[in-house]
Design a protein that fits this description.
Layout (H helix, E strand, L loop, with lengths): L4 E6 L2 H4 L12 H4 L2 H4 L2 H6 L1 H17 L4 H12 L3 E6 L5 H5 L4 E3 L2 E8 L5 E3 L19 E5 L9 H10 L2 E5 L11 H7 L3 E6 L11 E4 L2 H13 L12
This protein binds nicotinamide-adenine-dinucleotide (NAD).
Nicotinamide-adenine-dinucleotide binds next to helix 1.
Length: 243
Amino acid sequence: MRPKNIVILTGAGISAESGIQTFRDKGGLWEKYRLEDVATPQAFRKNPAFVLDFYNKRKKDLLKVEPNAAHFALARLEKEYPGKVLLVTQNVDDLHERAGSKNLIHMHGELLKVRCEHCGAIFREEGDIFVDNPCPSCGKSGGLRPHVVWFGETPLFLEKIYSALNECDLFVAIGTSGTVYPAAGFVVVARKAGAYCVELNLEPSAMADYFHEHHYGPATKIVPTFVEKLLQTKISFDTEKSP
Ligand code: NAD
């Protein structure tokens, strides 16, 4: 039977072949920076200029790269699938929307957006931001920060996500290590709700045992293949099958 409600969770692995490093890349970005120095509210309070500089550089990197075949395949699925497809991404890049996805939740925020801590305004800003920039909405300086969820902060839209997980009959996790919560636990919620769960990743994630089905390989290969099969209903959804 064709699933009616699909929820797809994506992580850094789906953008890796576009040239955005994951946390796990050897010799990559996250070996040069410590998470605690750039991705926590404490780091921002201690050294806002350093944190803003880090995100200004990430924005420049993002504007140089393009969506890949995996992003495009998911946009095609949303457009052509005769049921609901919700994409929940942990990624702060905008590659899903550039590929054409519309029903998309950025649970960890968006790199190309800035938020004012004084008035709460959120706006798109592709250029650099600095500590003394005034907010275009309230005019106060010193409150602008990247609109990204840092470690220790609560992810966005959780109510909407859990409600979709509880209603879905197919849950797919793509390019995520299954180590950052609450996203890592989504498979448990979806499975409890009766969904068939599929993992697409380069290697087994920390949550691999919770999935009914697994496909391992680069996202640009395995995601388009999976989407094609899904559109042709060539996948059997046996939730009784032990993983
Ligand atoms: P992660 O770095 O912990 O894990 C990435 C996963 O992707 C790994 O399991 C790895 O095996 C897999 N992977 C690597 N290359 C792949 C490929 N070509 N095809 C398929 N899979 C591949 O990332 P995560 O699970 O998303 O969680 C960590 C946090 O990283 C998230 O909060 C996210 O916001 C943040 N992050 C985001 C970006 C981005 O926006 N593009 C980049 C780096 C980190």
